[in-house]
Specification:
heterodimer, A: 231 residues, mainly alpha, Mitochondrial Import Receptor Subunit Tom20, Chain A, two-stranded parallel sheet, 12 helices, B: 562 residues, alpha+beta, Jelly Rolls, seven-stranded antiparallel β-sheet, 15 helices, elongated, CTLH domain-containing protein (chain A), LisH (chain A), Ubq-SigPath_Reg (chain A), CTLH_C (chain A), CRA_dom (chain B)
Amino acid sequence: MPPAATQAPAPQQKLVISQAEWDRRMAAAPVTKTDLNRLIMDYLVIEGYKTAAEEFSREAEISPAPDFESIQSRMNIREALQRGDVQEAIERVNDLNPEILDTNPTLYFHLQQQRLIEFIRAGRIADALQFAQTELAPRGEENPEFLSELEKTMALLAFEPAATSGTGGAAELLAPAQRSRTAGELNAAILESFSQGREAKLIGLVRLLGWGEMMLSQRADFPKLDLGPRF
Amino acid sequence: MPPPAPPPSTLPLPREQTMPLPTRWSDADRLPQLTVSADGRDLTFHGPTGTVDEAAAARANHPIPPACGIYYYEVEILNRGRQGHISIGFSAKNVKLTRLPGWEGLSWGYHGDDGRTFADQRTGTQYGPTFTTGDRVGCGIDFAQGRAFFTKNGRFIDYVFQDLEGGPGRELYPSVGLRSTEESIRANFGQEPFQFDIVSHVQQQRNATWARIQATPFKWDTPLGGTFTVEAVDTKPKVAEAAENEESANLSARVNDLILGYLTHHGYAGTARAFKAQTQAKAAAASAAAAAITGTSSGGDNDTDTQARQRIYHAVLAGDMDHALDETRAHYPAVLDRERGLMYFKLRCRKFGEMIIEAAEVRRRQQQAQAREQLAAQRRMDEVAQGVLLEEEEEDDYQEEDSMDVDDDAMHTSTNGHAHPHSNGAATTGAVLDTAMLKGKMKATDSEMEMQRALEYGRALNVEYASDMRPEVQELFRRTSVLWAFDSPREQGGALTEYASQAARAELANELNQAILESQGKPAQPALERLYRHTEACIMTLGAIGVGAAAFADMHREFLEN
């Protein structure tokens, strides 16, 4: 199946859509302030902005109010990972719902990998080796994808503990972005276990915008979105 | 504002209207050797078995709208006739009807006698099983992929053909061709349940298309505003991981800006403050993403401004126009001067309206109180007449009156010496009744004063704007004045008293907020709203020009439903 993005543009004359016509089309979009408020709330909840969500629920009179407690527990887990305290994150997830990790072997492996990374970051080489041998190596043998991740992580031992500035596959694992990535993966899995969307709808909206503008600009000349110098 | 000039389109833009679907075989668009049943669904071949140039095809009455995403119809073979030379497919408007679909350019078909498919081909391509009397063959076009597919007896065969399009000027019609004596088919254009589970199929394709759309690599280039760039599609997989990280950090930073802008725009000051603090804290925790986020948080810059707009917004919402006017005058005097005082007029007109509503409310409350009072008095009279005294209840009545009565003094003087009216027997009855009437009269005066004040305010406003012939000014004044005609404009409902509704307040509150933002050189709609509307316009336009994938980008379903 060809990816949607590569579908050939129509071999025909391009439409020209004037600003006035485009404005008319934008004005016709069926969306209300209430709709947008709900999109905002969805984002605040999924991304874990608990205080903002509480304020917003009050100021914008959103009902029903979301479950603020679950935001808090997800945030505690995320913060633990951001601090590098993988063990605490794992314990908290299991308190919340042990099935989350049981049913997501890839996620569980990534958490264990993160633990290994934190050992190496802290310079606890002996612990790192011990942990890698008992926890990670057996899994790497089961799954080739895990093995290559494990190899990449073990390569970190070759770096000086302080030298995190290097670029390339291994050093990237030490970058804070790696913690965020693991935290994001875990957050998504928890959300899914609550049968909630994994990703905030607003993110999907922005992606759709990118696709829509690209597809349309192959076929028509139309005013591009300009959000102005400030928004 | 002058009406917008007609768009200088090089092609007429298709209107966004619901497009009719095929429902039957066309009575006109077929060869005479074919008969069509009364319900338009059966075709029968009556001529002699033809040569390759003596086939007979029919097209449906309407073309297939590509905006439907996936189109599907089924055909039941009633009779294979002498040779079973039956072709099921689709063709463009002017393709010759003397040939089976697939043999001519712009026609496509699946043939029953050999199971081959044809797309402007003489010999065709091996495709699926043959079909004959009793079989049900389905034909689908997937506009998201530009491909067709066929089913036999409820089973999916395969995708076939490519680059199918059905946009304006290239409409495709369901088409069937027959070639040997007594061949006969019956079409199902959705009148009955299909043999094939098209609903699940569409659902699967919808999800797959949506996933592909969401996976389209995308980067928000310019730090603030500007246009979007879509990265080259063939990002190399190894680099992709890092790019993906960067992309998502970049994306959330931009979305955070949008949200902050939105919150600020609508005056959600508390939320904006909390959100800003939380995003910064989060950014500090994940220092890599930090630069991207803190560097560009532009909204929420002026908390005082946001709070002032929030107060004004809520004042209008509560009908407290004096407060709204004072605050606006104090913080945003320029707004009142805009468009020759249009906003100032609207606000004062609203105040006039609120005064009428309030006066009507006071009057109504009094009438109710008066009615209650008279009823109670009547009852007391009856009780006295019967010699029954119910002290407790009476006390209650008095307490209730005291708490809501502003004319207590007047009442007490008039009832002087009748602290316990009933204990004095029948003689007091008249006094009680008098009191009730007197109180009613006092309150009537009160509501009349309210009315009088509203009237004077309205007159002054009218005098001031009498020479302002702008239609919106005159109309707004009329819409406000008509409220006089109602006993209780707020509860009346209907078009005439729309102006008394809470929705009208909210509308004005939004309008004023926008005017304030515009007076500061900011856009009237928050960036987030413009982004949403712009996206919707893109998707609608894509659907209208025949890009099938747009049909599966159902924004309402994806973003607004829960």
